[in-house]
Write a structure and sequence with these properties.
The structure holds two protein chains of two kinds. By secondary structure, chain A is α+β, with helices and mostly antiparallel strands. Chain A is built from ten helices and 19 strands. In chain A, the strands form five sheets. Chain A has a seven-stranded antiparallel β-sheet. In chain A, strands 2, 3, 6, 7, 8 and 9 form a six-stranded mixed β-sheet that branches. In chain A, helix 1 packs antiparallel against helix 2. Chain B folds into four domains: about 120 residues, HprK N-terminal domain-like (Udp-n-acetylmuramoylalanyl-d-glutamate--2,6- Diaminopimelate Ligase, Chain: A, domain 1, 3-Layer(aba) Sandwich); about 120 residues, 2-Layer Sandwich (Beta-Lactamase), CATH 3.30.450; about 140 residues, Alpha-Beta Plaits (2-Layer Sandwich); about 90 residues, Arc Repressor Mutant, subunit A. The chains are: A alpha+beta, B alpha+beta. At the A-B interface, strand 11, strand 12 and strand 13 of A face helix 2 and helix 3 of B. Chain B: Belongs to the CdaR family.
Amino acid sequence: MSGAAESTAESFVDRLAGDDVEALERGASLLGSGGGGHPRLGALWLNRELAGGAEVRVVGVDSLTGWVLPVAAAGSTASVAVEKLSAGDELRRCVEVAEQHLGIEVDTIGVLAIGGGNALFPFIAAAQTGKPVPDADLTGRAFSGLEQTVVGCGPEFTGTWVSAEAHGAAMVIDGAGPPAAERVMRGALAGLGGWAALAYPPLPADTFRRLALAGTVSHALRLGHQHRQAAQAAEDGATLARRLGGEHLGRGTVLEVHRGSGGKYAGGSVAMRSPDGDGLFRVEMGDEYTMVLRDGEVVATTPDVICLLDTHRRQVIPTGQVRRGHEVDILLLPVPDRLWHADVLPRLAPRAYGLDADPVRYRAGGPVPAPGGGS
Amino acid sequence: MKEPTKQQPGEQPPEPVTLRQLVGHPVLAGAEHAGGASLDRQVRRVSVRAGVDPAGLGSGDLIVVSGAVDASGWQVEAGIRRCALAGIAGLVLPVRDRGPLATTVLLAERLNLPLVLLPADASPNDVALRLAQLVATPEVVRSEQVLRFVRRIRGQVDSLEAVTTAVAEVIHAPVSALGPDGALVHGRHGPASFRRDLNLPQVVVEGEFTHVIQPVSVGSAPLWLVAALRLPAPAQVEVAQAVLATAEPWAMSWLATRRLAAERDARARTTLLADLLRLREDAGTVTRHRAAILGWRLDGWHTAAYLRRLNEPPTDNLTDRDEIARALAQAGIDGPLVEQSDGWVAWQTVRDEPSPQEVKVVLEAVRRTLALLGSRIELAAGVGRLHPGIGGLARTVDEAREAALSIDPTSVDVSQDPAARVAHIDALGVGRLVRAWTRSRSARALANTLLAPLADQETLLATLDVYLEHESSVVATAAALGLHRNTVSDRIARTQRILGVDLRDPDDRLAVELACRALRPNVRRTSSKSQIANS
């Protein structure tokens, strides 16, 4: 399995329209690897913005100029945001406060993570501000911590962080890198109401172009469209995996779900047995699915994306919702090769999710340890 | 423990141990065997590992995981795969908060890797040490257990149970004691059958249980100590053998102490009864006091039964006493039982004069007793009449003895029918009384003295016997023996000369006839008509 579409070629779309939002939702959901928050809420929100006449342009990274402001949501969008609804203008205010505070004009709204709920928020911000979104992101999948991007704790992300919440308050964290910003955000989240819009320090267009994983927005849209077609055609897991350019690791019925308690990472395991009883699967999970064992052998780990799909409805099952009796297909979706490079890998390898294991990159016919793995 | 045990030259390597035998070890009590994998693999080495890590190990290796491993962790599952690929004999895994995930157990089953889950309170290092000793140095286990037993038993034992309990605690298996007849006298586990005729340590395997049997020899009938081990390793059997052998002297000392007390009691009973029979109403306060101590009631009405042994000596009346007492009690006679040289005297006492039916009741009870005892202890029994007081006791005992002596063990109906071995004094005619007398000791003494000169004159003795039988008729005797009457009169004349008697004298005649009667069984057994005729 080679890396996912990484190209600076023509974007899949240049403007979101019609069923693109649903495709983006599906694609982000698949790339969420079972975590990252469900993009459903963001998709509804974005649809409302588009229905109100707003538009979202998608531009290639080559054409970027000026400043790119990466936008995401901090906190639990998976659960809290559903109950504590947004005011609607958090993302716009977040961009505005950043512009005011830094005295710059943002040209493009950047996507931080194309997997999970965070994939949709930049597009809402773009719809509300009229600024375009580049066909790229900084993670290639979902992230669980602010430093889990290709930038990591690099100097590019030491600067001014802006957060805006529903009641109108905005918070500026100045001169902080991702770890400090994360620490402050975690402390502040309760006061901010559980979740809030978050803008990373803005990046100059050249820097963004150098760092970002190009083509991942198109990739997510393509995955989403393919997934919808597969669902409509009621394709089985293996066919669906081929269509998505991924691997079908197996199908099984969940025998047992074990969820660990305490610790920084909410760990857990899903035990599955194939319908014929021949295959035993075990999927380890933290905030996301992190590792797949087949008959006791580790066959895949992060940073590749591990999806558990409901065998009958073909929907993504998030880590928090997998339960005993589920019949699931285990799919492995490739990520950009860049994530397997030694400089990025440690931030996305199993140990970054609290799992004491070396990363293993899936190869049809047998897994191989990743080069530079185990660091 | 990771190094294989080095054998000294010439030393026998320990017998291979299977995983099943190790799983049956007490140190793994409470452990759960997960997965249906075969337990019959041989274990040659026990290794302690911090994790489920088979590196450097292979077939014949048992891994005991000692580290703080989360049994539900993926490392265990991955480790099981590696262990199975390495051909590991088995994996002992401690379970703390949570057991392994379903897939882990299923994988162990699929890959045929025996998985033993240790409960949280078990120490993996201790388990590993015990198992390793069992596998590699069984003799160390053996000596350790023997020492533990000796420390535990320390000092004198006051019951057989103290011995069996101490052994059971040391070898972690139930221990029972069996009587000479193989019946359980203490404990619950005994082999269905073993060689009771061999007074030797034995090992009997019956199904899942291996019985290790150690005889405790006192007198003719041994007591047996039996340990029941479930699926033991060979080393465990050896441990049980060693500990039981060590325990034998303790059991023996207890038995000997008890035997000594029993002998003393028996002597007290026997002499007291002898005194009562001799002194009758003249028995003084001391004698009466001794009777009171033994719980004998001297007033009231007594009915005695005399049980005479028919078995060939040597016999052990003391050892068999319990069995006799049990049978008597079961048949309804629960009075005193006193050892005699050739058997036992038992009697029943009631306060008020009972109905004459009481005798029949006792008679019936004695018949039942003989039937209950079966063929191991063969008896002839006599029952006396009802008599009151101390004198009455002596009378009924005498009558019972006479009745018992009246039974001829060689007669056909006695050997065929056990009921015929019981006689009541009233049922004896004059003839039987005489026969009873001829079986008495005084009759034997008379016969031996009077007929001593004929001891090596078998022909003369036999002719004399037939002559007296035929009313001193030479003609009838000659006809009976197929001899000429001159031969008969010649032999009779010689006999009279040798004995120094005159058979025409009534007194002499009676004495000689009674002596012949007393010896008659011997004469009849050893002679035949032709032998007498031809000599």
